[in-house]
Amino acid sequence: MGLPNISFIIATSGLGLLTADIQKVPGLVITGNTVADKITIGESKQIFSLQDAENNGITVADNPFAYKHVKAFYDYAGTNAELWIMLASDATTMSAMADKTGNIAKKLINDAGGRIRVLGLIKESEGTETTANGLDADVDLAAVKLQALADEFTGKYFPFRGIISGNNFTGTVADLKDYTTTTHNRVSILLANTDGEKEASIGLALGRLASIPVQRKLHKVRDGAVENFNAYFTNGEKVESLTSSWDTIADKNYIFLRNFVGKAGFYFTSDPTLTGDSDDFNTLSNGFVMDKAIIIAYNVLVENLGDEIPVTDSGTIHPAIIKSWQTAVESNINGNMTNLGELSNCRCYIDETHDVLNTGTMEVEIQLLPVGYAEFITVKIGFTTSIQS
Prior knowledge:
Pfam families: DUF2586. This is DUF2586 family protein. This protein is of the alpha/beta class. The protein folds into 2 domains: 25-289; 306-389, no CATH class. 27% of the residues lie in helices and 16% in strands. It contains 10 helices and 16 strands. It has a 6-stranded mixed β-sheet with strand order 2-3-1-4-7-9, sandwiched between helices. Strands 5-6 form a two-stranded antiparallel sheet. The radius of gyration is 24 Å and the shape is globular.
């Protein structure tokens, strides 16, 4: 037994500390070239600045296309923003990048250890692509593949959302596919850029997404313009050339750039995903909120996996257990999200009558109350003979 003494048993969870905040880290798969001793096609790289990118062979001289998009990312997001990047050959289609049976985007996400929450895909146009639905035919194929890949990783608690470059727009709005008829609720298509090329400004979009909290809309006007001077569709024409069709393009769930009368610069239009209006995840923002809440709840509840569950004399779950689990989930989600304005509220509910003895299952219900958005503002204005209070 040793000598008599006093022992202290120090609790490690008395402060109710929160789990780590879940950041919206972006990943990018993009056309590029191997640079000896610096970067190889198919190799995952984690970078934090444009200088890091240059040190890894993503330069104007060696990888001008990738450099342009990485520079746009850091011009908006700033130095120290985390970015995972992989180069793909110029023969690699975006659908091949996204294929869950392949080893491109799938490898990047695995190599990042699940840190990536938004993935951009972009291929440099060669000008000989087949056209379908008003775009490079590969765009729609990539959307299907990317949704399947995102679904697979969500089941592994590596949830992410994707944004695809809407290459080679023909300029004919009627030809664009109506994505309210599909169910790709983890995927978006960007149809615009700032330089008149055939590819969308994916680097800029990722920079914007990485710089805002999960509930923030891509197009929040108060955050300021994302481009000061020029905005184009991927057919090379300025976005103003299709002003009369903006509503139609938006109603088909594409993201592009727009301007506002009396305000300088250009803004993203919205953040729709490729699904119908009745889908809760028809916007990237709703999706990012849910992904973050899932990861926080998982990090809390996984600690309880395999735990002994005390029960009452009637065989139901002991109220103390229910209270502790509910409090842990709510305090972490509210502390990491509600208190930051990312949610309006959170409630966790556990049915105390659940037969845990015979089923070995604890059923947990988490209710998330999202924030609202002023998407449409209706103003009633007119002259009057008197002002009423």
